[in-house]
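RECORD TYPE: inverse folding
INPUT: structure tokens
STRUCTURE:
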């Protein structure tokens, strides 16, 4: 009687005998997958699918189907091992050649499809560098700010420092320390915007919207060491109706120099330098007596009209809009610092002297650029600002 182990052993013996003794009658053609017709059919199917692939994705699908692990040719190749040794070489050659053809076809199609794709991308992603750019409109700095800066720069270049003060100012700085008597008409309601009035206190201790930048003279004299050269741009307020040449809120720029031995000649020199920068060299300036409580002597500064250069004054000449045919344009107020101002700030007037000047920024801007209506400077129309450049 056979044991179970005995019958298993017998089975394997039989099996091993079969494998190690090839069947001389085995015909490779009999392995259907390896028949030349089958191989030819697989090749045609593969080439057809590759040629039909219209995109790289389709080609990938065709590659997996016809040369991937589950492709008929791959599976056929796996059958070669089952052939008798003498049949393997030929079958191997045949399948290998066809697989090579398929691979080459895939490579060619891949290259063609990639080229097509690249051309499509080039067209789709083309950038026309000649198209106008989408411009982002930037704002522009306001011409009044630019002018105040330019005017300050003229003096900064001469060694002055910029000093600023508050727009809401103590009456003492705005008037008293500047030698305005308590009953000076400039303090009255039509000129000054009073923020708070504190009657009954000693001195005038009200709060005002500063009517000029001159209080910065006092602030500078009280806080900065001597000698002192400062320029003070800033906004000032007057209680008055605005018209083509007046605003209730406008900008001034003020200069103050206090040093030993300063004279009116220094004042003239500073003013001439300023006019030269602003309106171009070669225009004469003139000083005529005037009155300000904080300067003594005081003067108003005029410059020769930069448009007609005085020609409009002559009889029969064309009229000049800029100087109204006067030949001169009033530009600024100025004078030698009143010794009483120096004393109010604790400075010895026997040792130090000084000069000061002040002018309206909008007015200087209007004169320099022939602007007829001061309201253009406050309307906030960006076209007005842009005309002065895009400086930011
Ligand atoms: N503060 C004067 C004004 O507003 C101008 C000025 C400044 C005059 C400095 C003389 C000196 O009119």
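DESIGNED SEQUENCE:
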């Amino acid at each position: 009687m056979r044991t179970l182990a005995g019958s298993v052993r017998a089975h394997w013996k039989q099996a091993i005998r079969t494998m190690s003794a090839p069947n001389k009658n085995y015909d490779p053609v009999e392995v259907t997958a390896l028949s030349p017709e089958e191989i030819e059919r697989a090749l045609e199917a593969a080439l057809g699918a590759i040629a039909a692939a219209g995109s790289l994705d389709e080609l990938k699908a065709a590659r997996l189907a016809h040369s991937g692990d589950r492709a008929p040719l791959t599976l056929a190749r796996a059958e070669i091992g089952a052939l008798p040794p003498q049949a393997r070489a030929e079958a191997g050659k045949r399948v290998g050649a066809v697989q090579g053809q398929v691979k080459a076809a895939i490579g060619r199609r891949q290259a063609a499809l990639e080229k097509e794709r690249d051309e499509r991308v080039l067209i789709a992603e083309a950038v026309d560098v000649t198209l106008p750019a989408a411009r982002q409109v930037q704002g522009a700095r306001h011409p009044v700010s630019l002018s105040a800066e330019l005017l300050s720069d003229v003096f900064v270049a001469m060694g002055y420092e910029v000093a600023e003060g508050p727009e809401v100012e103590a009456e003492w700085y705005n008037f008293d320390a500047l030698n305005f008597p308590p009953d000076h008409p400039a303090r009255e309601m039509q000129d000054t915007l009073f923020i708070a009035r504190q009657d009954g206190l000693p001195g005038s201790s009200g709060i005002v919207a500063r009517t000029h930048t001159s209080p910065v003279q006092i602030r500078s004299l009280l806080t900065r060491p001597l000698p002192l050269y400062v320029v003070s741009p800033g906004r000032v307020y007057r209680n008055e109706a605005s018209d083509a040449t007046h605003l209730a809120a406008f900008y001034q720029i003020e200069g103050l120099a206090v040093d030993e031995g300063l004279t009116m000649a220094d004042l003239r020199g500073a003013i001439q330098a300023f006019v030269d920068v602003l309106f171009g060299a070669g225009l004469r300036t003139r000083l005529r007596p005037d009155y300000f409580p904080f300067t003594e002597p005081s003067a108003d500064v005029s410059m020769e009209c930069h448009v007609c250069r005085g020609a409009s004054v002559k009889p029969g000449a064309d009229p000049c809009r800029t100087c109204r045919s006067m030949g001169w344009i009033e530009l600024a107020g100025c004078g030698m610092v009143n010794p009483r101002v120096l004393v109010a700030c604790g400075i010895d007037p026997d040792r130090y002297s000084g000069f000061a000047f002040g002018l309206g920024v909008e007015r200087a801007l209007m004169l320099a650029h022939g602007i007829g209506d001061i309201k253009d400077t406050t309307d906030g129309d960006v076209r007005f600002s842009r005309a002065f450049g895009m400086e930011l």
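NOTES: The first helix runs from residue 4 to 20.
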